[in-house]
């Protein structure tokens, strides 16, 4: 059988990003959902 993973990133800004995803089975039923948030910092001493 197979699973469909659909994801989007509804927001990014201020050195942060947010993404979410949904996993569906062949019948179209939601079987899992995921979210992730990331933070990016630029070090000034890394020239």
UniProtKB/TrEMBL annotation:
Q: Which GO terms describe its molecular function?
A: fatty acyl-CoA hydrolase activity
GO BP terms: namely: acyl-CoA metabolic process; fatty acid catabolic process
Q: Which CDD domains match?
A: Thioesterase_II_repeat1
Residue span, Acyl-CoA thioesterase-like C-terminal domain? 1-40
Extract the signal peptide range.
none
Natural source organism: Vibrio cholerae
Question: By what name is this protein known?
Answer: Thioesterase family protein
Mind telling me which InterPro entries this protein's record contains?
ACOT8-like_C, Acyl_CoA_thio, HotDog_dom_sf
Q: Where are the transmembrane segments?
A: none
